[in-house]
Specification:
Number of helices: 5
Distance between the termini: 90 Å
Strand order of the largest sheet: 1-2-3
Order of helices and strands: HHEHEHEH
Number of strands: 3
């Protein structure tokens, strides 16, 4: 339905399935002519997966605008909470309805830059002191 509404508003639309969003498949997506990607989730339990997808898509093409739609939260008109969630996910926008998703997708706002996170460094365990060979008493 979202694709149909975007087409009516003059956008060129292409669709990708769940399998296309797997880590190995994201690299094969043709994002050169794409300005905005909107990924829909059925519930808000998918916030970690949404964060992962936003990061992968923005790494593939830094100038890409990525929006997340949580369809089960329709009727949630709290725009401040949506903006805070978008900042947490590093998305350009978070939508809870088709109207919000269309407004976000057709917006001419510049893309949000990908936040760099510090890589975790594993602590090395202190090496055990090498034991000196036992001296044999003669």
């Amino acid at each position: 339905m979202l694709a149909q509404v975007l087409e009516v508003n003059g956008a060129t639309v292409s669709k990708a399935g769940f399998a296309d969003m797997e880590p190995a498949s994201i690299r094969r997506l043709d994002l050169a002519a794409v300005d905005t990607v909107v990924v829909g989730f059925l519930n808000r339990d998918s916030v970690k997966h949404a964060r992962f997808l936003v990061r992968r898509l923005k790494r593939a093409r830094p100038a890409l605008r990525v929006g997340i739609a949580f369809w089960s939260e329709a009727g949630n008109d709290d725009s401040q909470a949506a903006a805070a969630l978008a900042g947490d996910i590093n998305a350009d926008f978070v939508a809870h309805s088709i109207a919000d998703a269309v407004r976000g997708a057709l917006s001419s706002a510049p893309p949000v830059a990908l936040k760099l996170t510090a890589k975790r460094r594993l602590r090395r365990r202190p090496s055990l002191a090498k034991k000196a060979p036992l001296a044999v008493a003669s």
